[in-house]
Amino acid sequence: MEVKELILKEIERVPEQYLAEILDFIRYLEAKALKEGMGTAIASETSLKKDWLRHEEDEAWQDL
Fold first, then answer.
1. Which position has the higher pLDDT, 55 or 5?
2. What is the pTM of this model?
């Protein structure tokens, strides 16, 4: 049985009063993943800046 199926079975057994907490936790995990992804993007931008900010790059893209 897949993890998703196990989670769904468990959710069926959870009392209604705890479902809002579970939803909050899922949203927390989604936000955390988004934040970590943004951190990687920002780090990449910093390391690639030296290549992007060159005269040759400007010339290569000027006709677009």
1. 5
2. 0.54
